[in-house]
């Protein structure tokens, strides 16, 4: 069975590719989780983050923005000592900053999903890439999302992170045309 070229043979990665990546997600907390995990991934492979995702969920209170926004220095130091996550102090502190900023978006747009999906008018952009070298790492939309998030005070939300987030959350459909998920996800 043909899959997108970036998938390795690990069942964890195959399952992620086949059942999560590119599937439209509208749940606020799950979108927030994806955004934080994409930020944690910056400079690393998604596979590295995926293997640590359960630890992130446990240590970051299942990505509850209210709980993360209340983290104090003691919690930060505890997180930085845990090898179950990527122990980068800038990324850990960015998660807390982003949780605090989350609520201003919720207040302005009604919920986080409304804001995020407004960049694509509420529906996925379907691409028809035949090879991985055709898939962009940024787009005009990911640039706009990045600028907007940064203006709202978010950290680790550059255009490349935003495009990866858009792919993961199903805002863009970037399964290759040769992938088993290409048509399945379009139904």
Automatic annotation (TrEMBL):
InterPro entries: Adenine_glyco, DNA-3mA_glycosylase, DNA_glycosylase, Tag. Zn(2+) binds at residues 4, 17, 175, 179. Keywords: DNA damage, DNA repair, Hydrolase, Metal-binding, Zinc. Its EC number is 3.2.2.20. It catalyses: Hydrolysis of alkylated DNA, releasing 3-methyladenine. It is an enzyme of class 3 (hydrolase). One of its GO terms (molecular function) is metal ion binding. Hydrolysis of the deoxyribose N-glycosidic bond to excise 3-methyladenine from the damaged DNA polymer formed by alkylation lesions. It holds the Pfam family Adenine_glyco. PANTHER family: DNA-3-METHYLADENINE GLYCOSYLASE 1, DNA-3-METHYLADENINE GLYCOSYLASE I. GO terms for biological process: base-excision repair. This is DNA-3-methyladenine glycosylase I.
